[in-house]
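P.,

For your records, the input lines for the assembly:
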Amino acid sequence: MPSLEPYRNELDYSYAPGIFPAMECLLHRPESVRRLLVHSAAVGRDGIEKLIALAETHRIRIEEADRVLARISGKENCWAAAVFTKFSDILQNDCPHVVLHCPGDSGNVGTILRTALGLGIEDVALIRPCVDVFDPRTVRASMGSLFRLRVHVYDSFAEYRNTFSGRPLYPFMLDASVPMGEIKEVPHVYSLIFGNEGSGLPAEFAAMGQAVRIESNDKVDSLNLAIAAGIGIYHFASKGALV
Amino acid sequence: MPSLEPYRNELDYSYAPGIFPAMECLLHRPESVRRLLVHSAAVGRDGIEKLIALAETHRIRIEEADRVLARISGKENCWAAAVFTKFSDILQNDCPHVVLHCPGDSGNVGTILRTALGLGIEDVALIRPCVDVFDPRTVRASMGSLFRLRVHVYDSFAEYRNTFSGRPLYPFMLDASVPMGEIKEVPHVYSLIFGNEGSGLPAEFAAMGQAVRIESNDKVDSLNLAIAAGIGIYHFASKGALV
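Structure tokens returned:
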């Protein structure tokens, strides 16, 4: 078995660092797990025995790998990690989607994945160019939610739109004329579209579907992307009674 | 003038790293600014001339300080920072408050400050033990919002409550029986109370005011603190028409 390389976008595998994210990976994507890495001092840590038992059930190779764990997590007290093959899902056509257009921050993407799952939206599209959704920092910020969601990365928004034509689209834009609070009726399926942290969505999205803005004042340039997504997902999910 | 020390909680001053956060500091708290630090390669950067002109208007000392900037920001391309004296405000009794009970993550606190300001809540209380609200990481995550808010740190929640008795309190708790969406009428003043990232609010908060929970499923342990605060602040601020 080849030795493990430091995480890189180009690799076809990545790491889920931490006992809890590794557990989510083994519970929900066991077929994607290549190995389980365990620290030599992990014995007795909360959850570690359950994690090892789960790996054994699935006949996943378990390795003691202190140095690799320190390297991929950037800290000394990372007790376990799953090595998993990157995956690509088919999104469900009859479910609401979150679409992240060219997100640039791994932490934001992970936080949005966690929010979407917790509020009941389980299909997430990313549009390139974007950060790697399998980056260990994303996995960690998602608290392993990545492994319970359906996720697909598209080369362009046109590709996404062609794949899922006819859905109501809600681009979130700072200068949209319709405040989100005015959306009282939410359809059964829809796509909530959020732009890049710095540049937002390109202007042409204003003509796609119903652009909305989150009501805020001009004392801040904008809300943080993950916060805006959280507020938007909550509004639509609670109106549609997903949670 | 004494030399500048690396940031520490114990110092009576801190740093606002980055041109935009430094600008917010000079614009809204000029009386707190001790010096403006500028990088030798900052000439021509967006906003730097306005920043220097503002410092000159307020007769604030300007220093070239490449090494200090790299040290406080942890990166090479930090073009400016304001050195400011930590401050303590008197919160407004007739305005809504956000209360952060023992927050442990500087980035979360900064993001919540930015959200509160953008959604129209301008009074923020922190309850000890908590991270330093003046930590440069908090200032940066807040995008300088810190300097436009009224902020006060209390030794205990009892101290806060005694100072502002009689206000409606809304503790956010995972196991509260009332879903937030059921709160349709929002009073003129109120306090939204959010607990620590890991442990939430202590159980006794359930008996204070009207505890509420953000409707989410059990596929995640909880929402990220800054996300929960964003969703909560948006709900109350939009019902109360603050934005």
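Two observations worth noting. The longest helix of chain B spans residues 225-239. The longest strand of chain B covers residues 33-38.

Regards
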